[in-house]
Design brief:
Blueprint lengths: L2 H18 L2 H16 L2 H5 L2 E4 L10 H9 L3 E9 L2 E7 L5 E3 L5 E3 L5 E2 L6 E4 L3 E2 L5 E2 L5 H6 L5 E5 L20 E3 L3
Parallel strand pairs: 1-2, 1-7, 7-10, 10-11
Antiparallel strand pairs: 2-3, 3-6, 4-5, 8-9
InterPro entries: FTHF_cligase (IPR002698), FTHF_cligase-like_sf (IPR024185), NagB/RpiA_transferase-like (IPR037171)
Catalytic activity: (6S)-5-formyl-5,6,7,8-tetrahydrofolate + ATP = (6R)-5,10-methenyltetrahydrofolate + ADP + phosphate
Pfam families: 5-FTHF_cyc-lig
Amino acid sequence: MNIKEEKRQLRNETMKRIAELSKDYTLEADKKIYEKVINLKEYKEAKVIFCFVSTEDEINTRNIIENALGSGKRVGVPKCIGKGIMEVHEIKGYKSLKDGKYGILEPKDECPLIKSEEIDFAIIPCVSCNMEGYRLGYGGGFYDRYLEHATFTTAVICREKITCDYIPYDEHDVKIHKVITDR
C-alpha cells in the first residue's frame, strides 16, 4: 500500500471515529482547545491570525475567530481559488463570509487579501494528527501548498480521541509547529 492509499484508509477510519464522538465530548473538548489556543504566547502576541472556518464535524473555531477580532487582531480565513490552491482573506466578522466550495464558509469577494508574510500565527485543521505535528488533511493539499514557504508559527487543533500515533507522510507534507488537543 502506498502513502496515498494509507492516508485514504486512515481518513475513512478516522471519519467513522469522528461520527461516533458524543456531543458532550466534542463540546467539552472544543472548549478546552479554545482556552489553550487563546492562552498561547504566539496567539496573544500575534497581530495577524490565519484561522480556518470550521464545518459541523470540525472543532468549532468561531469562538477563536471572534476572540481574535474582539482583541483587535486582523483575522484571515482561507479561500479556495483553484485545485489545491487557496489564499487568505481578511474578515471583519461572520458577516464577511459566504457559502464557498466544499460547503465551507469563505470570505466574500470584497474581503482584502492577506499576504503570507503578514501572518504571525495560524490555526490549521486536520482529520487527525500525531503529537509530532504531522497532520492528516482532507486530501486536497491546500494547506500543504500554502504552508510550504510560510514563516509564521502554525498550530494544528485536534480532539485527543482522534489523534493517531502514526500519520503517513511524504516530502510535500508540511510539519506543523504546535499540536493542541483537549488534553
